[in-house]
Write a structure and sequence with these properties.
heterodimer, A: about 270 residues, alpha/beta, TIM Barrel, eight-stranded parallel barrel, 11 strands, globular, B: about 200 residues, 7 helices, 10 strands, about 25% strand
Chain lengths: ~270, ~200
């Protein structure tokens, strides 16, 4: 059976990991290649590198890191952040990444998804969606958590969660896959950073409307949250950062706990 | 294309000296051939034809050169694919079909590989080891005796074939961590056991 995937996410700026795994095997917490190798040893199924500065001068540093990671670990990895053009996609893939993720460019010029999928294959185009809960127009409920499910909708944000749009997240998820995205990386902006759990309703609704895998992101604080995302949320994979960075769990511990609860994982 | 770089790096890691080439001459001189492939069936077949590689590949495979096919490098060995109009290499009778079930397509992620027969490429790899898959189509060999491994996704499908000097798999050894590296290492040993033919040396 296909295993559910556990994917650590590494935020990189200026060639350094922002929040590295601490106190584990004397790994240099800031070195993306050492961090990647450590996650690989722990049993990560895949890695995501998010270039959170993504300025032009840092592009080359990121490409060098991608090349070194590709020589060191032999599991799939995705690079996202600041990918704006087909040429950006080509450079990152040539450097050794298996997949790229687009977010802002996907909304501003969605043809990048079609063209990227056509040239490089859907399997390497991940569409990242940052979604935030909003009340439907005809409703001014302040407490969305208590609103009936059918009265919630989600809007897409761009620019790393800094710019709101009027795009409906569920509609965009469907459109992105029709355009050729091979996977969706769905981040709840409401849950991100809270460590209080993924937005299960968002995940479930998107997962039920698309045929491609959905990667859950934003809000993981413990294994129970991951379990919920993979079962009730119908996600195919879970992405997490803090839970691993702070050394509370290793990837192996998370996978063992999930396996004990009946989730198929690669052990 | 797509995963050429990954395959090259993984082969280097296990001690091979891979050369990326589209020259029939270099293929002939090589001690083994690896044909990876991600993308569409027709694009890959056209790419091989445009570079004049269809017949050289058929001849070298028939001549006993160790061959490792990955993903489309497996699918192209068959006669035809539901994905495209082009004919495949036709080394094996059978066709390539799309998954027909309620699960997500493509299959993306790690799944277990169960050997159907002893195959030197899988030496030292435990039955049920996890490999990384990315695909919507799979092969249906007419001759079941070439099925080397099976995998379960909605139902059981053929995830690798083996016959003589040919091993080809739907999964990606270059992205399958230690199990994948072991497979590549086994392939390297098989290429070393089978030096280029005498014909090459005379030319």
């Amino acid at each position: 059976m296909l295993a559910k995937r556990i994917i650590p996410c590494l935020d990189v700026t200026d060639g350094r990991v922002v929040k590295g795994i601490k106190y584990v095997n004397h790994v240099d917490a800031g070195d993306p290649v050492e961090q990647a190798a450590e996650y690989d040893r722990q049993g990560a199924d895949e890695l995501v590198f998010l270039d959170i500065t993504a300025s032009l001068e840092h592009r080359q540093i990121m490409l060098d890191i991608v090349g070194r990671v590709a020589e060191t670990i032999f599991i799939p990895f995705t690079v996202g952040g600041g990918i704006r053009s087909i040429d950006d996609i080509r450079q990152v893939l040539l450097a050794g990444a298996d997949k790229i993720s687009v977010m802002t460019a996907g909304i501003l010029s969605p043809d990048i998804i079609n063209e990227g999928a056509q040239r490089f294959g859907s399997q390497c185009i991940v569409c990242a969606i940052d979604a935030q809960r909003v009340p439907r127009k005809d409703r001014d409920d302040s407490d969305l958590a208590l609103a009936p499910e059918e009265d919630i909708q989600w809007k897409v944000w761009t620019h790393g969660g800094h710019e709101p749009t009027d795009v409906d997240a569920l509609d965009w998820a469907v459109e992105a896959t029709e355009r050729g995205a091979g996977e969706l990386l769905v981040t709840s902006m409401d849950a991100d950073g809270t460590r209080a759990g993924y937005d299960i309703e968002l995940l479930r609704r998107i997962s039920e409307r698309v045929t491609v895998p959905v990667i859950a992101s934003g809000g993981a604080g413990n294994v129970e949250h991951m379990y919920q995302a993979l079962t009730a949320g119908k996600a195919d994979a879970v992405l997490a950062a803090s839970i691993f960075h702070f050394g509370e769990y290793t990837v192996g511990q998370v996978k063992q706990e999930l396996a004990d609860r009946g989730v198929t994982v690669r052990l | 294309m797509g995963n050429l770089g990954s395959v090259e790096k993984a082969l280097q890691y296990v001690g091979c000296a891979p050369v990326i080439t589209s020259s029939p001459r270099q293929l002939e001189e090589a001690s083994g051939i690896v044909l990876p492939g991600v993308g569409a069936f027709d694009d890959c077949m056209q790419g091989l034809r445009d570079r004049g590689l269809l017949n050289p590949l058929r001849e070298l495979i028939a001549g006993g050169k160790p061959y490792l096919g990955i993903c489309l490098g497996l699918q192209m060995l068959f006669e035809r694919s539901q994905e495209g109009q082009e004919s495949g290499l036709g080394i094996f009778p059978g066709q390539v079909v799309r998954f027909d079930h309620e699960l997500k397509i493509p299959q993306i992620g790690w799944n277990q590989v169960w050997p159907n027969q002893p195959v030197p490429h899988l030496a030292g790899i435990n039955p049920g080891s996890w490999f990384y898959f990315v695909h919507s189509y799979y092969v249906q060999p007419a001759d079941k005796s070439i099925v080397a491994t099976t995998t379960e996704y909605g139902y059981e499908f053929c995830s690798a074939v083996h016959q003589d000097n040919v091993f080809a798999c739907q999964f990606h050894p270059e992205k399958s961590q230690s199990a994948g590296l072991k497979l590549l290492e086994n392939f390297k040993q098989l290429t070393e056991a089978s030096p280029p033919s005498e014909r090459d040396e005379r030319e």
